[in-house]
Design goal:
By secondary structure, the protein is an alpha/beta fold. It has eleven helices and 25 strands. It has a six-stranded mixed β-sheet, with helices on one face. α1 runs parallel beside α8 and α4 runs antiparallel to α5. The chain is elongated.
Length: 435
């Protein structure tokens, strides 16, 4: 891979983008047709539509429906090279990125490596309560959820059977709300007629939130409506409740143990560790505090965007770590680079709030667009249309639309194949393959 003198081989400015998520992809696309040489680096070969990742985790959609190979997405953009690799460090003085498989020099660098799970100092909980950020996470969760029903079906002891039918979701943000609502639907509508011994309608879905309300990014009245819609689906919502322990037997709520063999984590995120290696100030979550043009303080050639960037809005509130914000940052950075190459300047980044959406379950959702607020069936339709529109590729839009239509009329979830292994559950189960 290229070394110190690589830029002498090509006079075009070399833009290196770390991360193929919403932000990184928006930068690459924004630089189409420019006199730039772009290298996009990601640990995985695909772009993932994370807002629908919970649907893969709960067997509603298959992985290819919400993901697409980065090379396929950018195949018509001749000035982009995609490398499947991992960024380990950045040498700001030498304008060089250290990768797992070599080094890469840059003229401009965009760091968009996102965020990962945060367990608030209890990293040992991750084994028992997986989070949801990648397709691998989704497969792990799907396996645990489906195997819990299988274990309950063959369990003779009533207490142990109920433990397999108890599900705990930790965290009342959008991901937690969506997971809890979907789990309740699976237990009450999708699977009961398929199991003979376990009474799946006795399944309990517990949603635990340490704060005073669900969906804190929404208006309080919408948070309350979301809670009531979840409870109507059969979800037990516990607010102002802290999880103080998690192990293979369940969780501890304050000082009270709760037996549950499946615990899912949706309580917090931490910025990619690469952010701390940039030498700039970071906030408590590890997000890099950037300049008004999203550049690194003292290094105008380096930009930090997406979940890794700590950016304040005009009202002082932080820009939320959501897909629309990452896209806006990516498009903005592309415009800044193009302006610089023309010898011009750019105004500071300004976040445009496109609204917020969260689905709770079948015909239940909440939506907020400034002062406009919706809930129930109308919000659910808005959520459906928006997510189909934002998916990448006509095929993905068509497949998701057909899958959702089928699930709506039949309550069925087609992606219910158990594969792989999970040591936490498999310690209590016989081996199984792809059959």
């Amino acid at each position: 891979m290229e070394g110190n003198d690589a830029r002498t081989h090509d006079a075009r400015p070399h833009v290196v983008i770390l991360g193929g998520g919403f932000g990184g992809l928006a930068v690459a696309r924004g630089l189409a047709g420019t006199p730039a040489r772009i290298t996009l680096i990601d640990r995985r070969n695909h772009h993932l539509f994370q807002p629908l990742l919970y649907q893969v985790a709960t067997a509603g959609l298959s992985a290819p429906s919400i993901a697409a190979p980065l090379r396929q997405i950018l195949r018509k953009q001749a000035n982009v090279t995609v490398l499947m690799d991992e960024a380990l460090d950045v040498n700001l003085a030498q304008h060089r990125v250290t990768l797992a498989n070599g080094e890469l020099d840059y003229d401009a660098l965009v760091v968009a490596t996102g965020a990962t799970h945060a367990y608030f100092g209890h990293d040992d909980w991750e084994r028992y309560a997986p989070g949801l950020k990648t397709l691998d996470d989704a497969f792990t969760i799907r396996r645990r959820v489906l195997l819990a029903f299988e274990r309950a079906e063959r369990e003779d002891d009533p207490a142990q059977r109920q433990a397999w039918l108890n599900f705990v979701v930790v965290g009342g943000g959008a991901t937690g709300v969506e997971l809890a609502g979907t789990l309740a639907e699976i237990a009450r509508h999708t699977l009961p007629r398929e199991f003979r011994r376990a009474e799946l309608r006795q399944a309990n879905v517990l949603l635990v939130e340490a704060g005073p309300r669900l969906l804190p990014a929404f208006a309080p009245d919408l948070s309350d409506k979301a809670r009531r819609q979840l409870e109507k689906l059969g979800v037990d919502v516990r607010l102002n409740t802290a999880v103080t322990g998690i192990d293979e037997h369940g969780v501890v709520l304050g000082e009270t143990p709760y037996a549950a063999r499946t615990v899912l984590w949706a309580a917090g995120v931490a910025a990619s560790p690469l952010g701390r290696r940039l030498g700039a100030p970071v906030d408590r979550a590890g997000r890099v505090q950037v300049e008004a043009d999203l550049s690194l303080p003292g290094h105008p050639e380096v930009f930090v965007i997406g979940d890794l960037a700590s950016v304040a809005q005009a009202d002082g509130k932080p820009v939320p770590g959501v897909a629309p914000a990452a896209k806006q940052m990516g498009r903005y950075v592309a415009s800044v680079l193009k302006a610089r190459w023309r010898g011009g300047a750019s105004p500071p980044f300004r976040y445009r709030d496109d609204g917020a959406l969260a689905t709770i379950g079948r015909m239940a959702a909440v939506a907020q667009f400034g002062r406009l607020k919706f809930s129930g069936l109308l919000a659910w339709w808005i959520w459906l249309v928006a997510h189909i529109a934002f998916l990448i590729g006509f095929r993905n839009r068509l497949v998701v639309m057909l899958d959702w239509a089928w699930a709506y009329w039949t309550y069925q979830r087609h992606a219910r194949i158990v594969t792989g292994s999970d040591e936490t559950h498999d310690a209590h189960a016989p081996s199984s393959g792809d059959a």
